[in-house]
Amino acid sequence: MTTLADPVPGGRPGDVERATALSGELSGRGVHGVVLSYVDTAGIGRVKTVPTARLASAAAWGIGMSPVFDTFLANDSIVTTDVLGSPDGDLRLYPDLDQLVVLAGQPGWAWAPVDRITQDGERHPGCSRTFLRRIVTEAAERHHLTFKAAVEVEWTVARGDAPGDTFVPATTGPAYGAARQVELGEFTADLLAACAAQGLDVEQVHPEYAAGQFEITVGAVDPVAAADRSVLVRQTVRAVAGRHGLRVSFAPAVVGRGVGNGGHVHLSAWRDGVNLHSGGEGRYGMTPEAESFTAGLLTHLPGLTAVTAPSPASYLRLRPSQWAGVFTAWGRETRETALRVVTGTAGLRDRAANLEIKPVDLAANPYLAIGCLIAAGLDGLRSSAALPEEITGDPARLTEAEATARGVRRLPVSLERAVEEFRADESLRGALGPVLADAVIAVRRGELASVAGLDDDQVAAAYRWKY
Q: What are phi and psi of 11, to 5 degrees?
């Protein structure tokens, strides 16, 4: 007879005892259920939930969920490959108790990200959270590097009483305007309160450029926790908005034309507590390793877009002269280049200097996106790649001859082209491994097929409320 005292492999030592204690604590705080959360290849947050009393069982044995979700599309269709998409088999979802949070925005619920484990106790090769942890571990073991990361979260706020699936902005105030902040002040105040109660150190929340658009940023942490935070922030925004009768969208493009929602990633490499993006003899204080890391990102950006901009709607956002960063170029505080070198304010640079990667949106699975960004940077570091000259101003103003001479390329203008670039990038596919790389290609092709023949407005509408 098996009991909670002798769980199958997959959990961590002590988790059952911790979960048992947590169950009592959560119940005492009025928590009735726990959301077990992960993100699929299409970037959709998927969940299973358990009653609080079943948390110890979940920690011991996991919760069943089919591996077929690796090939779900955003519209819930399923694509198949020779490796993935079969209705056979099962995986177990094991909650990470270190990241369990009581949801202030959803009274009665707690939330925890999961690792996906096979029934034999092995790490599932399609688990994106496991992939990111592996990349971070390899960087520490082989290069003695650690990283800090943060994901900016942009979203649009719509009226909850708008008919059907239409988008009607919930505020009429101008971009970055005080009027917009006042109109939705109660909502954003409750959002700040919920984030604080959940231990999220919010740095900013403010109106953004597009109609009804806002942005929230939280502090940088280790990459796995940063990806977890990205998911938790969106769960919180959506829940708090719903309690105010509002509807939110994190989709890359809510309408066919105009500025979309980004999910820019801020990333910095550290060794022995020292920020490699500050205090060096390279440009703007970068060390030689930071320059090579940046050069690696530039080299792999075309293929990376299949991971960081994974939706057909992503390419409605990735347009020149909209601060989306659609050229393989870098610059200090240059918002039109794909890589923005952020030096930080004098006096804080040793802590604040980082890279902002701009061609990223919130249709991206954050674990895949951050993991692939680090892998690309490490490839540049291993080869001591040379960082080209800085670009100032808008790269769109360069003539074709000037852009070629300076090594500036336009990033893929469609998801189809991004997939071609990804398939040609052996380094990226090797970092992901065959199962995840196969899933990325299959799901991206499936998304393309699902919107074949649609115009820009129809593509935006197809994904408007999926993210």
A: -80, -175
